[in-house]
Amino acid sequence: MKNEERFSSKRVEEQEAIEGLRTYKKDFTMTFYLRHYWKDERLTFPSTRNKSMTFDGRLIQKIWVPDVFFVHSKRSFIHDTTVENIMLRVYPDGNILFSLRITVSAMCFMDFSRFPLDTQNCSLELESYAYNEEDLMLYWKHGNKSLNTDEHISLSQFFIEDFSASSGLAFYSSTGWYNRLFINFVLRRHIFFFVLQSYFPAMLMVMLSWVSFWIDRRAVPARLSLGITTVLTMSTIITGASASVPQVSYIKAVDIYLWVSFLFVFLSVIEYAAVNYLTTVEERKQFKKRGKISGIHNIEAVQAMAFDGCYHDSETDIDLTPFSIHSEEYSVNSKNPSTPTTDSAQLKRKKSLKGHVGRIILKNNHVIDTYSRIVFPAMFIVFNFVYWGLYV
């Protein structure tokens, strides 16, 4: 005897991220009302008013009901507060409505290669356990309209882009073909949380590393401490992000962005290492040109730089020597009121000193720093255009 089952999920309720949609574990939990329709002529009864009779779950043990189970289910149960949430309604012509309130945790085959800019396709599959298609036929009573959801449903991490019903067949070599019903839904992840947690801090650290290009190459402690700070901060951001993302063996979109950002920060430190090395090479060349006496001054300047982090240029010291001599003369003359001094001479000395300091700053700007100020931001902007254009 063939039994025909008309299947309808009249109302599907996803509770709190489809009951906390645990996407990082590649499964989801859904709570919904599952309603079966079928006809059993053995349960017909005479009625003058054409009314139905409603029963609770105690009658289920006395009659035939479809043996539907959830494919790829990890855990499922029927709610029993305050009693089992089961309803059976029998009509005079033998039509039966069987309703259950069920919570199901099922697998979802997810791909996190585009995480957190990903879209996931999940489905809940229903099938008869014992009856193949020759004994029992399953189909949606009203097609795609058989699924009704709450209009105000809101998930913490996802937008529900699509929610549909479909059907198909499943083959088992030992038992044959079975009808299978699908509840399909497409989920698109909210990105704003990950922008605040990962993307925006990474951008700030990369831009902060560019400040090093505008600091004098002689200021070793300033540039070195800034480079190490940005590298360590990027490492902290990557470690924090890895703790809150799916643990998979392949590369995710967020990994690409964070590691490329880390590479930019790391290259800014390498850039200063190159600048410092080339500066040392230039000093050695100047040492050979100036001769032994000038070389001694350079060695002393390098030693002084190693202690206080500031380069003492011999030329600067020589050029500023007259100013120091005039300062001494001015102090002596100030003690002797008879020596005439003018304010105009002091103003000229200050202006000449400021101009000399400006020339020193421009001279200490290495050509690599000049190019880095343009190349690093340009490359990072190009990377962002390619990244967001590819994944969004």
TrEMBL record:
It is a multi-pass membrane protein. It catalyses: chloride(in) = chloride(out). The chain crosses the membrane at residues 191-212, 224-244, 256-279, 371-390. One of its GO terms (cellular component) is postsynaptic membrane. Keywords: Cell membrane, Chloride, Chloride channel, Disulfide bond, Glycoprotein, Ion channel, Ion transport, Membrane, Postsynaptic cell membrane, Signal, Synapse, Transmembrane, Transmembrane helix, Transport. Residues 199-339 form the Neurotransmitter-gated ion-channel transmembrane domain. The keyword Transport applies. Its main location: membrane. Pfam families: Neur_chan_LBD, Neur_chan_memb. GO terms for molecular function: chloride channel activity; extracellular ligand-gated monoatomic ion channel activity; transmembrane signaling receptor activity. It is found in: Postsynaptic cell membrane. Gene3D superfamilies: Neurotransmitter-gated ion-channel ligand-binding domain, Neurotransmitter-gated ion-channel transmembrane domain. Residues 18-190 form the Neurotransmitter-gated ion-channel ligand-binding domain. Belongs to the ligand-gated ion channel (TC 1.A.9) family. This is GABA(C) receptor.
